[in-house]
Amino acid sequence: MQRRSFLAASAATLAVPWAHASAADLPKGQVKILVGWAPGGGTDVFARIVGQKLSELWGRPVVVENKPGATGALAADYFAKTKFTDGINLLMAHVNTHAISPQIFKSITYDPLKDYAPIVLIGATPHILVTGSQNGYASVQEVVEVCRKNPGKISFGSSGTGSVQHLAAEMFNMAAGVKSIHVPYKGSGPMQTDLIGGQIDFSFDTMTAATAQVKSGKMKCIVQTRLSRAKGFPAMPTMDEQGFKGFDASSWYGVVGPKGMSRELAQRINADINTVLALPDVASRFDGYGAEDGGGSVDKFAAFMVDEYRKWGDVVRAAKVTEES
Question: 103: domain range?
């Protein structure tokens, strides 16, 4: 377990023109954001950006605590089952922990829709259909064609069974009417190594993880997976534009509180995080990671979580994805 605190000194806080004068009305005690992944990943980066700004806004330390394991489920399970008695305790929810994994892994016993208090969507990032730079595929239609000519022989790597990369490939198989091989890895890093080396053929990798390799020329991007083009890749077409109507596979990040958090407190934190997300420097950093569409009301995020749970549940059942897949 690793911790890092973002401290805002009193003088610095007074210099922040957008700081709330009413920050003293928040619950006393430590402010903590729990992250289910190791430092440096997308979830951790977004938590630290938001945490630092909340620290300045509230004039008190915000601690980001990492509790990695089981693709985020370890932290989500701990958070759901812990009875917090003081302070402000928040969890960075993720599409894996709150929409996909609970529908696949029997060991997960928390309820992603009932055991947490939704607060706000932080943002959603597209995935990119990528291949090694040595391959010349220029469109998703060419990828479909090579899969059709080589049934059961073309491989798609992912960061693990039940990841969005995995399910995006299953969505592609069903939509294109092809059969490909799923090759799970323990994260995007080792998967990218084999993709670049030609041991696997494709991946629907996250934009956050793939951008550096694409820009360095080691991987080639073919298409992105949200309905609208990300600001960071305005020239790259979407799956929807290339004939896969309605194809939408993204990684999303949000903030939730404990089940018993009052609606008043959830709405207060929601308002403050919306303020943070609207800051030009925060928006610029998020654009660089491909994270968009964050913010909105508590109710909007709650409805979004329900929709995502249903959507990915349909994919899991239709593709017959299991923990052994």
Answer: 2-125+251-318
